[in-house]
């Protein structure tokens, strides 16, 4: 498998856990402009729907050539056969991490893994596969009133995480708020990738369950995903450095 350092390994030492920068841009040109100040850095970047639907596999090839690790965030959610075949195609791209919606159910998640195994070129490692539990833009009121889920957010996230775990997935996407519960239930090697990251002075925008990089680290998240706090900052590189220092436990803001 690809390397994905566990947040608990080397506790107390300085270990660089994945800090994933969400490249939420409409074009490859925007990405190239954004990455200019980072040209000497090897990043862990996320390509989501906005960019992939416009630029397709070419942007993945470009980012790999630049030496970046890639989370291809397409949040697959369909019938098992469709997800299996889509994952088979994505596995050829050589990305490090992909995801599905746990709401698609266990058969769909198992099919995702089958597709990835079938599509990974021999001699290469298959991408890690994680499941979105509840989007970080969802709050408890939305669970109740829109999704008709009567359980608490924590119970719901834990339930979806258990489906992902039973299906053999490598981890979940959740808010860092839910990480301690998931770690307690499924151990330290089950990945918890956490978006909804903001520092105190940031706008929440459409996010509901937000956590600072420092708190996410303390809560034991395996990785954080940061988009607008960096991509919309006046000085993106300075923002990246500041948030990364916080994530690495060097300073609290
Ligand atoms: O799967 C994801 O990456 C994801 C899941 C989730 O529950 N919430 C969430 O915000 N994300 C993604 O994480 C990124 C967060 O971006 P910012 O809110 O700008 O930091 C976006 O690219 C979202 O698509």
Automatic annotation (TrEMBL):
The keyword Lyase applies. Its EC number is 4.1.1.23. The keyword Lyase applies. It catalyses: orotidine 5'-phosphate + H(+) = UMP + CO2. InterPro entries: Aldolase_TIM, OMPdecase, OMPdecase_AS, OMPdecase_bac, OMPdeCOase_dom, RibuloseP-bd_barrel. Pfam families: OMPdecase. Substrate binds at residues 24, 46, 73-82, 136, 198, 207, 227-228. GO terms for molecular function: orotidine-5'-phosphate decarboxylase activity. Pathway: Pyrimidine metabolism; UMP biosynthesis via de novo pathway; UMP from orotate: step 2/2. It comes from the Bacteria. Keywords: Decarboxylase, Lyase, Pyrimidine biosynthesis. GO terms for biological process: 'de novo' pyrimidine nucleobase biosynthetic process; 'de novo' UMP biosynthetic process. The active site is at residues 73, 75, 78. Residues 18-243 form the Orotidine 5'-phosphate decarboxylase domain. One of its GO terms (cellular component) is cytosol. NCBIfam families: PRK00230.1, pyrF. Belongs to the OMP decarboxylase family. Type 1 subfamily. Homodimer. Catalyzes the decarboxylation of orotidine 5'-monophosphate (OMP) to uridine 5'-monophosphate (UMP). This is Orotidine 5'-phosphate decarboxylase. It comes from Thermaerobacillus caldiproteolyticus. The gene is pyrF.
């Amino acid at each position: 498998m690809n390397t994905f350092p566990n947040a608990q390994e080397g506790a107390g030492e300085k270990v660089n856990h994945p800090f994933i920068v969400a490249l939420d841009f409409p074009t490859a040109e925007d990405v190239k402009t954004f990455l200019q100040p980072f040209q000497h850095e090897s990043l862990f970047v996320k390509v989501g729907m906005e960019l992939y639907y416009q630029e397709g596999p070419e942007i993945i090839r470009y980012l790999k050539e630049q030496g970046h690790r890639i989370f291809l965030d397409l949040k697959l959610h369909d019938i098992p056969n469709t997800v299996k075949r889509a994952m088979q195609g994505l596995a050829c791209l050589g990305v490090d991490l992909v995801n599905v919606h746990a709401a698609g159910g266990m058969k769909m998640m198992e099919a995702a893994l089958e597709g990835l195994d079938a599509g990974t070129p021999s001699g290469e490692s298959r991408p890690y596969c994680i499941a979105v539990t509840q989007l970080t833009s969802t709050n408890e009121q939305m669970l109740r009133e829109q999704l008709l889920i009567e359980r608490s957010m924590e119970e719901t996230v834990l339930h979806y995480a258990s489906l992902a775990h039973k299906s053999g997935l490598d981890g979940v996407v959740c808010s860092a708020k839910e990480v301690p519960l998931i770690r307690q239930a499924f151990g330290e090697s089950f990945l918890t990738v956490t978006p909804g990251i903001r520092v105190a002075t940031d706008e929440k925008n459409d996010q509901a369950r937000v956590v600072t990089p420092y708190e996410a680290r303390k809560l034991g998240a395996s990785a954080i995903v940061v988009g607008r706090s960096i991509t919309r900052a006046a000085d993106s590189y300075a923002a990246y450095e500041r948030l990364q220092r916080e994530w690495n436990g060097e300073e609290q803001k």
